[in-house]
Every structure is written in structure tokens, then in C-alpha cells.
Amino acid sequence: xxxxxxxxxxxxxxxxxxxxxxxxxxxxxxxxxxxxxxxxxxxxxxxxxxxxxxxxxxxxxxxxxxxxxxxxxxxxxxxxxxxxxxxxxxxxxxxxxxxxxxxxxxxxxxxxxxxxxxxxxxxxxxxxxxxxxxxxxx
Length: 138
Ligand SMILES: [Zn+2]
Known about the structure:
The chain is of the alpha+beta class. It has two helices and ten strands. The protein is globular. Bound molecules: zinc ion. The site of zinc ion has 6 residues, from loops. Zinc ion is lined by residues 53, 94, 96, 98, 101-102.
């Protein structure tokens, strides 16, 4: 698995953990930021891209992440791993600074209705299919 990054994006020291993907210049909402060479479904597939419970990237197809909002130079680019991972074994302890931090990020988080609404239109297509097929919550 390899990823192509937007020209204004570089792998650098992260404020989240180890390495991360950072904006070297302002990136406008809707810009294609990361293009993977194969569909993403595991943590390893994300490479240097860190998880956040309040991410600035979301899916536009199975291999493309776009900016969900304007990103300032120096900001870290992150994705919510649960938008692509539905492995029931997947558990990530998160300490991201967001007030939305779920602390335990799991492969079942796609079932959380608040998240379904927040990331509407920006789920990985395989996960979106599950959401569409899941019976509506009571
Ligand atoms: Zn978090």
C-alpha cells in the first residue's frame, strides 16, 4: 500500500503521535489530500496518517481522502479510522485533544448514529454500504 500526497502536504513530526501528515500550506475544503493505491481497510493501510475523533479528512471514494474543511499551514491532517475500519477486533485507545474524543475507537463505531450524521457523504464506500443496509436504530 502506498499513498500519494497533495503537494502541500508532508510527513513530519506529529503532535498526535510519532510521525504524521501535516499541511505545509493552506488547503481548501474539498481538496484531494491523499490518494491510496488500493482500498483502505486496516490501520496499517493509513500509513503515517494519524487518527482523530475530529478529523479534517474524509472519504471521497475507496482510495481518496479530501479536506472536510479549510486546513491551515502547520495543521496536522487526520482521518477518523472508524470511517474505513469495520473489523470487530479493531480497538484504538485515543487521546486526541478534541472534545469529541471517543477514547475507545472501535470497528463498530460506524453504528453510532451521531457519527453517521457527522460524516454523511464522507464514509468509506464499503462502510457506507453497511450503514445503508443496517436496520434503522430503534
Ligand atoms: Zn480521540
